[in-house]
Automatic annotation (TrEMBL):
Species in which this protein is naturally found: Saimiri boliviensis boliviensis
Protein name in UniProt: T-complex 11 family, X-linked 2
InterPro entries found in the cross-reference section: Tcp11
GO BP, sorted A to Z: protein kinase A signaling; regulation of sperm capacitation
One cellular component term from this protein's GO annotations in UniProt: sperm flagellum
Membership in a protein family: Belongs to the TCP11 family.
Length: 407
């Protein structure tokens, strides 16, 4: 075995171009062993105990050694914290600081280890979920019935022109969820991947009283419901901010502090929006109006007239209605952004962030990452089942593609 290692190392070094993989790994092991021996020698507890008993313990030297070792081993983000420790003269405070930074370094190492193993854990998770689901499917062949209905509806949604205009105040949730209608641009059937993405988007409009949840997504049902609720909150939040900005102008909204204050107020007062929308928006309108009045006054601008104040209050309170124009458009834009995230990935989507949603960019980006990540995992686990179902919905001879592509 030893000779095999050295022969393999020789082959790598003599290859064209040279492969230094094993050599670098070997050097790393040498460094780690040497470092371990140095630490054991410098921090020999028996020797340190004897030095302390005879009053010969050199605390400054020992402290410097530990700090130098920490500087060598810590992540770059901890360099500043270690440097600050070097300026502490009081031994008790220094020891306290050392333990605090060591705790952070330990957390850094744990995070690095988790991140390193994440691809392997994810792959194992996918294989485990596939095996367990197949076991259930073998015992219950009808297990994919609701999944089939879900994908069939998605195919219908994406292939049927919605009569409503995107900017219509009466735009429905199903219209807002829909991907751009391919039939409006060509006569070719939608691809399996597009149908699947439409199905994922429909989950954010799900009515549990009317439809059964797809079997392949039952494990993710709670998280998807939380995302749907978060999407609804962001719709109300952005609607409030857009109305407020139209009355207060760019001066106040150029201040991140002012915008964050309005966000905090709106989020706090709309927690019970679903059960009491009118009451919630009445509170929001009054509080936001006061903030705008005070904000304009603080920067020396003319405050809103009585007529404009009444209009502001009325438009904010009108957001409580499902058919509110601003609310409908914001809802549609958010869902179209999530569609873009599924189609093109998060990085590209964030580079082309919709201007109308810029006030909730941070919050919507967070929702997008969660949604795409969850759907990506689901697609990896159940792609072969989806492909089989979609072959019956969209015959391979007609579909633009026959396989469900990864996100």
């Amino acid at each position: 075995t030893c000779n095999a290692f050295w022969n393999h190392l020789k082959e790598q070094l003599l290859s064209t171009p040279p492969d230094f993989t094993c050599a670098l790994r070997f050097l790393k092991e040498i460094k780690e062993n040497r470092l371990r021996n140095e630490i054991e020698e410098a921090l020999d507890t028996d020797l340190l105990k004897q030095e302390a008993e005879h009053g010969a313990l050199d605390v400054p030297r020992l402290s410097n050694y530990i700090l130098n070792l920490m500087a060598l081993l810590c992540a770059p983000v901890r360099d500043e914290a270690v440097q600050k420790l070097e300026t502490i003269a009081d031994p008790v405070q220094l020891l306290r600081g050392i333990f605090r930074v060591l705790g952070l370094m330990k957390m850094d190492m744990a995070n690095y280890t988790i991140k390193s193993f994440q691809p392997y854990l994810q792959e194992h998770s996918i294989q485990y979920e596939q095996a367990k689901f197949q076991e259930l499917l073998d015992k219950q062949p009808s297990l994919l019935n609701y999944t089939t209905k879900w994908l069939t509806k998605a195919a219908t949604d994406i292939s049927t022109l919605c009569p409503s205009s995107p900017d219509s105040p009466g735009s429905s949730c199903s219209m807002a969820c829909s991907l751009p209608n391919r039939a409006a641009y060509n006569s070719e059937p939608p691809s399996p991947t597009m149908v699947l993405y439409q199905g994922y988007l429909n989950l954010l409009c799900w009515d549990p009283e009317k439809e059964e949840f797809p079997e392949t997504l039952l494990m993710d049902r709670i998280r998807l419901q939380e995302m749907a609720f978060h999407l609804h909150q962001l719709t109300i939040l952005d609607s409030v901010l857009l109305v407020a900005r139209s009355f207060s102008g760019e001066v106040l909204f150029s201040s991140p502090e002012f915008v964050d204050r309005l966000k905090c107020i709106t989020k706090a007062l709309t927690e019970e929006f679903i059960s009491r929308p009118e009451e919630a928006m009445l509170s929001v309108s009054e509080q936001v109006s006061q903030e705008i009045h005070q904000g304009l006054k603080d920067v020396g601008l003319t405050t809103l007239s009585s007529e404009n104040t009444a209009s502001l209050l009325g438009q904010l309170q009108d957001i409580a209605k499902k058919e509110n124009c601003i609310r409908s458009i914001v809802d549609q834009r958010i869902r179209l952004f999530l569609k873009f995230c599924l189609l093109h990935g998060m990085k590209e989507s964030l580079l082309h962030f919709p201007r109308g949603l810029i006030l909730i960019e941070r919050e919507l980006a967070e929702l997008g990452w969660k949604f795409v990540s969850l759907m990506h995992h689901n697609q990896q686990v159940f792609s072969r089942y989806y492909a089989e179902i979609l072959k019956n919905i969209i015959p391979p001879a007609q579909a633009q593609e026959t396989d469900v592509e990864p996100i």
